[in-house]
Structures are given as C-alpha cells and as structure tokens.
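Q: What residues go here?
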C-alpha cells in the first residue's frame, strides 16, 4: 500500500486504529472507497485508513522503484546459486501490486538466466484488512489494462486467492518455483508466528523487507515497536529493507533494531524514501526502543548515522559476504519410506524443491489405508476464533488449492482429474460447530442452506435439513490419479523395498532391506523421512507407538433406478457417503466397475485391530449407520450386501489427535511424517510443506506453536498408550 502524504509524526495511538480493534482471529474485510485522482482516473482508497492503496501517478512504477530497485532485487536474484531460496517479507499485501511486480521480475530473470532454473523465491506477506475477491478483481482489472504484462499473473493470483479467514494461506506456483504465504491477521502477531528456530542446520531468515503499510499518521500499528522487534528477529546481517516513508518514527525504529538507514530519492514528486541494511546485531539489546515516541518534531534524531550511510554508494549487500544462503549442506537426495498419502505428498514437496527422492514401500504405492476408491475432501470445522491455529481448516484450504493445481497438470498429461469438485453437505450430526458459528465464515468456504435449498442440492426428500453445513469447495479426491501425477515427477523414483533398518552417520543415512526379489538392498541418502503409518514405530522406536484403528469402506454398483434417488452430492453424518463414477485406472487399486457409477459409504471404526480382511459385518455396520442418520435411505440402499465390495485400512492416531511431523530427537537426518488419522488427504499436503521447509531452512506455513504441537518429541507423546 502507498501513502498519499508522508507526515513526520510519532503518534503511537490512533483513533482510527483503536476503533478497529477486534479479536485477532476475526478478519474484517477491507472497505474499498473510490475517488478520482488528478488525471480523472478512479483509484481505490482504504475506508479504514482514508489513504490510497497505490500512487495516483503510477503505482506499478512506484513499486518497482521503492521495493524492487532499492532492495536491489534484480541484482540479488540474478546472483542466486542453484537451489538457493530468496525470501521477501512484506508488511501490507493490499492490492497485491508489489507481489505482482516481484513475480514479473522473477519470471523475467528466470527467462534470461538459465542458472535460476532451480532457485526458489519465497514471498511472505501480511494483511489485517484483506480486500474481498470481488473488489480485488475490479482493482487488478485496472492494472491489467495499464500493464498488460501483468495480465496472466493477475489471473493466476485471483484464481488462488484464499477466503478471508485468519491464518497462513500458502499459494504455490510450481512452474515459477514460487511460494506465497499470505498471513491474514495482525502483522505483529503473524510475524511472531514465523518459526526461525529450525530443526535443521539451516535457519530461515528474511532477505528483503517491503515496508508498505499505510502512512504512520494513518495507521501506526504497522510501524509499532513490536513490528520492528520481529524484523530484527527474522533478519540477519545484510538483510535489506525499503520504504517510501521517511517519518522520524520509521527512521528511529529501523536504527534501534539494527538497520543502518539511508535516504535516497523518492518516486515521482516524493523527495525522499528510506533504504536500510541490517548490521551485526550481536551487541543490540532487545529493549532499546524506549524513546521512539519522543522528539516527534525532530527530523533527524540520528543524523550522524544517516550522513555516514549517505556517503556510501549503495545499500546493496556484499554478494561475496553472508548475504547468500549456504546451499552446500542442503540435501540433494532424500529417502521417503511409505508410499501412502503422507509419503506421496512428502516426496512431491521435496521434489518440487529440487531434491532427488527415492520413494520406498514394502508393497506398492497406496497399498495401505490411503488407497480407497475416493477420499472426501472436507474440513473438520471449528469456531472461527480458533481457525488460525486449526490444522484441519488451513490444511483443507491448502489441499483444495493444490489438487486444483494438479488437475491442470493431469489434464496436460492426459490423466484423469485428481479432485472432482462436488461440494458436500454436512448434516451436523457429529460436529463441534453450529449454524450460528458457521455464519462467521465466508460463504465461499462454508455456509448454511435453507431446508428447501438443502433438499434441492442433496436430493433428499424427507430428511430434516434445517441444521446443515454446505461446503461448496469440497470434492472427491481420486487417490489413483494423485499417485499417477506425483510419480510422473522426474525427481521421484519408486522402488519396492521392505525396509529392515535405518542407520545414521554424521554425513548420511542408510537404509537396508529387501526388494521384491528378496534380495538385500542398501540405499544411502542425505536424510530419510519415515511415512509408514503405524509401522513407523517398528522402524524407529523414537516414533510414538500410535493407536491403530481399522476402517472399512464399502461400495456397490447402483441400479439405474437407484441412481435417480441416491444423494446427488457427498453427505457427512456420523460417517459419509458419496456417489462417484469409477475412472480408467481405478480398478488397479480396488474392485470397481470402471466407467460406471459407484456408491461409497462408511467407514467402520474398530480400535486395536490391524487385520485388513473384508468383513460382511462391517458392510452392515456402515449401512446401519447411514439409514439411522438418514432414514429415507433405508428403502434405497440394498439390504442384500453380499455383492458389496470393500477395502480396509489401518488409521494411525495420537493421543492428542495431531499428526507427527518433524525431526526425531537426537537426530539431524531422520524425520517423520505420520499419524494423519482419517484426514490424510486434507492435512498431508500442508504438513509435507512444513516438513520440507523445516528440512531446508525456509519459513513454514504453520506457526511456531503449531509446529510444536506436531513435533515427534512433544510432551503428549512421552507416555505410551495403555
């Protein structure tokens, strides 16, 4: 966002800001006003802060001048080493114009510098008052007209733009080796959640800051001491920052948290702007900002430092110094043990960061609990004041974006879609949220339908549907299609190996086992990730011995008459049911009739049972559960279950119901990702991203607190199950 005027004021309390106070997990969408600029063009103005979002003259040119040029991004990005990741952090996402400018630059550089093919760009941004998609579409349409070079990027951004709920929303643009983490909520709180106490030898940090909040006189919260304290924590020597503002409060705060500042020519009619570079912070104290609110009329309290820095020729970090992140010790080859949904998504995340992956399984990909004919992708809802730290919600939103993205890849390769967008109706028979709380969510994520609307959508005739949760973005995941798409990645190689032992040295990790011909095999790599569900404990006793839960899913081929009266969309009750058409390849995993409709229902829930035989008794349990929840199904679902098909798998569950994600105690090279329960297709993708980030020393899309809840070494996992 850009300010219209730059007033040198140190007011730390603002009536505007005070009046906008609300719970940090409740997101208030930005109110967009429109005004005419000097040239007769309409420009968007923040209804909360009364300031324009971008320069009336040329916002895109200003973004390039202030943030790209004065963080030296063209030079620094060009000089990245293979597999090196560069991290930009922005305060104030606004209309996304800074991001679009950065993305366009990144694409241009990758086109003309082949050595950047494996380099990565991570863009982290915060926003407390995000712009609704409808308004953002209108705003960016203006930039599509003014700057046609942004048109394609605008379309991609709008297609991935998240619903406006608190927390971190990761947008992945794989073709450009680019990730965007949009943290919605208070900026200081969001920055505080970024974990930089990495479990690996690589600690994440920010390379360049875009300080782009509204003017300090309009919104002091983005220029508060708490913000600069987080900047200091997340930076390192040679981290740079740039801002259009030369306000005294900004200059003093940057200097107090370890940055050396420099005034340079501003954009257009602005005389000055600030650039800064982080110095050695060893001798800085954490509490040296006590006088920031004083001397509000002083233009240059620290003029000596500014003058000294002005005598230098540039704020650019020394490319031969610590500015380049070390890549020598990054893993080049990883072993992933277990080819269920956790292993597949872990392999995918690692391979997309340029790491060669050897994926192992004792039988075949999706041979275990992940290989059902379809998986229902639907969130386990929570009251909205918990949502920013709710793994199921944030995982579901990321998975939805990922699977839609993979659908595009599958189509290009002639494969069937990974996810079929069906929507889903939750009858709220086993939920921890009611219709009043659902109203707090954006309608595009979750809403309540009228009884009549719910009947129309579902096809149910007599069921009381006055209490319901409609999930328009839900869908059915095709595990076979997901597996085929992931295994096409050139850096992923699958081998059938029954792993017997894992040994770790300072330099590498080695697995030993037997292949399908019973021959002994040994494979070494830089690290290993154990994704073997309940068998993970057998491979390494440091992994918690989880609860085992048998679940059998049932399905049958409906008659033509049944097809006309079965539910039209997936339904959630104390179980779930769904109608789907078996696609080419589905019969490789399950006994289905390809190109014919199948009706899926289940699943059973049997504790401490690891047999995977198909049981008629559990077919009956699933039928009884469905007709008890929805009595009108009793006359539709066949009573003769002798021709039903099924699949049984063993789910793995921890005492606190959170999965296990991270590096094992007293290890540097052995990692684990397991215990996804019944929600693997919703949460495995985000967990795989977090694990890969921890392994490579980049910022994860989960908070420090959430990563602690997932840790293999957390307190709740220190006591064995009884």
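A:
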């Amino acid at each position: 966002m850009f300010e219209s005027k730059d007033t040198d004021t140190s007011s730390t309390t603002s009536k505007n800001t005070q009046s906008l106070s609300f719970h940090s997990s409740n997101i208030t969408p930005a109110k967009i006003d429109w005004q005419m600029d000097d040239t007769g063009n309409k420009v968007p103005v923040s209804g909360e802060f009364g300031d324009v979002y971008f320069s009336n003259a040329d916002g895109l040119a200003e973004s390039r001048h202030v943030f790209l040029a004065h963080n030296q991004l063209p030079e620094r990005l060009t000089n990245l080493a293979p597999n090196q990741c560069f991290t930009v952090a922005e305060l104030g996402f606004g209309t996304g114009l800074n991001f679009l400018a950065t993305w366009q630059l990144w694409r241009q550089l990758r086109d003309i510098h082949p050595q950047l093919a494996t380099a990565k760009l991570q863009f982290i941004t915060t926003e407390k008052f995000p712009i609704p998609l409808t308004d953002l579409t209108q705003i960016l349409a203006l930039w599509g007209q003014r700057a046609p070079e942004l048109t394609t990027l605008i379309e991609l951004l709008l297609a991935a733009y998240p619903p406006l709920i608190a927390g971190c929303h990761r947008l992945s643009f794989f073709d450009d080796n680019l990730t965007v983490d949009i943290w919605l909520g208070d900026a200081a709180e969001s920055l505080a959640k970024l974990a930089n106490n990495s479990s690996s030898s690589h600690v994440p940090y920010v390379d360049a800051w875009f300080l782009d909040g509204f003017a300090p006189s309009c919104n002091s919260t983005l220029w508060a001491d708490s913000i600069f304290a987080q900047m200091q924590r997340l930076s390192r020597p040679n981290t740079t920052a740039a801002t259009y503002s030369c306000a005294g409060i900004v200059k003093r705060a940057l200097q107090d948290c370890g940055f050396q500042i420099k005034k340079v020519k501003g954009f257009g009619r602005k005389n000055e702007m600030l650039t800064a570079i982080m110095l050695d912070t060893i001798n800085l104290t954490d509490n040296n900002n006590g006088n920031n609110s004083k001397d509000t009329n002083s233009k240059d309290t620290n003029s000596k430092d500014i003058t000294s820095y002005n005598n230098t020729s540039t704020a650019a970090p020394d490319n031969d110094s610590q500015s380049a992140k070390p890549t020598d010790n990054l893993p080049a080859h990883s072993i992933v043990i277990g080819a269920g949904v956790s292993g597949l998504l872990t392999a995918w995340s690692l391979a997309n960061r340029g790491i060669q992956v050897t994926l192992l399984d004792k039988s075949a990909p999706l041979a275990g609990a992940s290989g059902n004919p379809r998986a229902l992708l639907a969130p386990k809802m929570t009251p909205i004041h918990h949502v920013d730290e709710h793994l199921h919600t944030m995982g579901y939103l990321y998975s939805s974006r990922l699977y839609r993205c993979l659908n595009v890849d599958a189509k290009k390769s002639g494969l069937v879609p990974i996810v079929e967008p069906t929507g889903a109706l939750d009858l709220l028979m086993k939920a921890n949220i009611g219709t009043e709380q659902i109203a707090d969510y954006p309608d595009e994520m979750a809403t309540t339908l009228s009884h009549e609307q719910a009947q129309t959508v579902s096809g149910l005739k007599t069921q009381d549907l006055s209490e319901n949760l409609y999930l328009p973005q839900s869908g059915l995941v095709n595990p076979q299609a997901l597996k085929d798409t992931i295994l096409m990645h050139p850096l992923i190689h699958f081998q059938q190996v029954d792993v017997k032992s894992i040994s770790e040295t300072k330099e590498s990790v080695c697995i030993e086992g037997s292949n399908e011909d019973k021959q002994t095999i040994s494979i070494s790599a830089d690290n290993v990730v154990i994704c073997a569900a309940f068998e993970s404990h057998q491979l390494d006793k440091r992994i918690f011995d989880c609860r085992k839960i048998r679940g059998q899913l049932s399905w049958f081929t409906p008659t033509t008459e049944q097809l006309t009266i079965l539910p039209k969309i997936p339904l959630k009750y104390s179980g779930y049911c769904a109608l789907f058409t078996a696609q080419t390849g589905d019969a490789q995993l399950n006994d289905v009739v390809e190109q014919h409709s199948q009706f899926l229902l289940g699943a059973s829930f049997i504790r401490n049972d690891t047999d995977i035989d198909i049981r008629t008794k559990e077919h009956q349990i699933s039928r009884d559960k469905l007709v008890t929840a929805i009595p009108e199904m009793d006359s539709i679902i066949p009573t003769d279950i002798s021709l039903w098909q099924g699949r049984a798998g063993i789910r793995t569950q921890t005492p606190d119901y959170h999965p296990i994600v991270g590096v094992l105690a007293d290890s540097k090279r052995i990692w684990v990702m397991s215990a996804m329960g019944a929600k693997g297709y919703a949460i495995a993708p985000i967990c795989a991203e977090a694990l890969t980030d921890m392994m490579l020393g980049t910022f994860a899309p989960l908070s420090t607190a959430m990563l602690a809840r997932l840790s293999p070494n957390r307190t709740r996992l220190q006591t064995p199950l009884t």
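A: Context that may help when evaluating the design: The longest strand covers residues 492-504. Residues 1-23, 282-316, 318-325 have pLDDT under 50 and may be disordered.
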